[in-house]
Amino acid sequence: MPTMQRIGSDLMTLVSRDRAPEHARYDFILNGYRKTMPWPRALGSLFKMHNETFNVWTHLIGLVWCVNKLAQTLTTVPCGARATAAIAVFLASACCCFACSATYHLIGTALPPGASAAMLKIDIVGIVTLIAGSWAPGLEFTIGRRAPLNAIAYLTTSAAFMVAALRVRVRDDDRVSMRVVCLVLSVCAGALPLGHWCAVATAAELRAQLPGFIGMFFFYGFGALLFVLQFPERWFPDKFDLWLSSHQLWHVCVLAAVVSWSSFCEGYVLESCA
Ligand SMILES: [Zn+2]
Description:
- By secondary structure, the protein is mainly α.
- The protein has one domain (38-45, 52-272): Rhopdopsin 7-helix transmembrane proteins, CATH 1.20.1070.
- The protein is 72% helix and 0% strand.
- The chain has ten helices and no strands.
- The protein has helices spanning 4-11, 39-44, 53-76, 81-106, 113-141, 143-146, 148-167, 175-200, 203-229, 246-272.
- It is elongated.
- The mean pLDDT is 84.
- Residues 55, 101, 105, 247, 251 line the site of zinc ion.
């Protein structure tokens, strides 16, 4: 009769794609999958190597960075309540995204299909929250100052897109397309106020603020491109099973976008109130 210890260690044995639970599979990632297991076991796999380890740690590190930055912002940023609130909303949305994502990748992907699908929805809520939150400083520093009523209209449109995106049914075989739908809808909604602002901003405003937007868009866009193309694993199957697959690179790009946008907003606020 197998002992509890034996069952436990057997659960932690990694399996190939064809033996992995269907809902946990990635295209072109052939090895390094965990079996389905109870959530305490999945939690215990935080310090074990498998094909979700890098996904979990990139966003756990992001969570720690953002919590620290949020605490700093709330206690030290010296330039008015509105600017502080806008940056704080963005950092709080990033904390939400990183916490949801790390939890989904650590626990959700190892749970049975029903529970895993529910946790995937939490992950998507986190992504949408971050994209919406990324616009809070932009609206406050740019279009919100020039056309507050338009800013409210954009936010309403953005919220409607997000509700629509979240209501799309999540199926086990729909992991990639569902996320892409969410991202495209949210980015389209977010691009409206930026386009409006570019049309009405002065040359000095464009010079001061456009680089921040470009930096954020570059990292979000580049990460989304790798994600959609499934680069590099599509071209090199089994070479990126544990490290540097497209999903993991997407996580790194999201972290880079958050750090870049946060640093720009902080610098811009400090400069404009100096
Ligand atoms: Zn992810």
